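The freezer alarm interrupted the setup, so I double-checked each line after restarting. Inputs confirmed:
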Amino acid sequence: MYAQLVDTGVKRLKTLEEMSPQERDFQQKIDAEIKIEPKNWMPEGYRRTLIRQISQHAHSEIVGMLPEKNWLTRAPNFKRKLQLLAKIQDEGGHGLYLYSAMETLGADREEEIAKLHSGEVKYSSIFNYPTLNWADMGTVGWLVDGAAIVNQVVLQRTSYAPYSRAMIRICKEESFHQRQGYQILLHLMQHGNEAQKAMVQDSINRFWWPALMMFGPHDSDSPNSAQSMAWKIKRMSNDDLRQRFIDQTVPQLELLGCTAPDPALKWNAERGHYDFGEIDWSEFYDVVKGNGPCNRDRLRTRRRAIEEGSWVREAASAYAAKQQQNNAAA
Amino acid sequence: MTDWTLFEVFVRSKHGLNHKHVGSVHAADAAMALENARELYTRRSEGVSLWVVPSALITASSPDEKEPLFDPSDDKVYRHATFYELPKDVGHM
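Predicted 3D structure, all chains:
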């Protein structure tokens, strides 16, 4: 998802009997759906896993601004430009809510951002794909934010209270993103010429599989899931989330009058779900490893933004110090 | 940014309601914290008033003290209106 392959450092779940009294107390709270607040005792593994997951999630929001930035100066009209700006500002805000939640665990924001920039910590694989045409702004809002929403709606019930609260805020804002994206596509399909309609289909063809990869590897290849689920950091498995996303997305795809680049995609009345083809996992792992079309460019842009913005932060500090001096003198 | 202060943010969503904690921001000073909080927490008319407080200035009760602090109030049922049963004839009181 926005956080993929989060390592819990745990190979096997402890039973209640194997736990220390503190651990058992903690697990029983989790089992009783009692949310964990920052000052409550928590196992070190829980804290570390959460820092990893929330920082990855936050980085994804921040890096996720970049593919859209590409179209700010190229939006077809002023209205679309304003909408895109508002969406991008939201993503920045979501990143900040999440960094705040992460800091309640004792993590340092600057350190975590430095880890992103050194490549030590990842962000969602989806943002390593380029946005090549205007329809991509529609597809990103509809499919990418749509996939994020499916995950984040479930994460509202995550066991760590500050993370849960951030998710609730984010979900409230996110549905605007998906609707504005879908409307871009709908408008192109209903009022566009043949070339514009082809642009939409091309965009869906490129983003369909990467969007499905956002949910992470199959449950059977997801060694960290069991502990994350036991701690209720994760509330639903990768495959279940992916299926839910597909089931709700295909009718929207049909309403657009478009198709998915998956010949195996078909309603299965017996299962009550859509069947779909196998994801190319070698592509997924390759992108995660840093070899996607835009990995290097994204990190370069992030590093440059921090470096070139440093004078602004210094000026703000200098100004604050001067104000304080003036106030003291007065 | 290392020398910036962490502020907790409180928003009053409507006139007549309490300010409610919504999250935190980093800022060089309180004025900047207010500006940042406005951008971050009130993009969709969530509030009519903002407070920012340096996080370090907040004194919080410890979770370990939860029982000694809050349990005593649990066994004082007579502090609740429902404790006092009155005949129906009294009507709404």
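Quick read of the result. Chain B touches chain A at residues 1-4, 6, 22-26, 28-29, 31-32, 39-40, 43-44, 60, 62-63 (CB under 8 Å).
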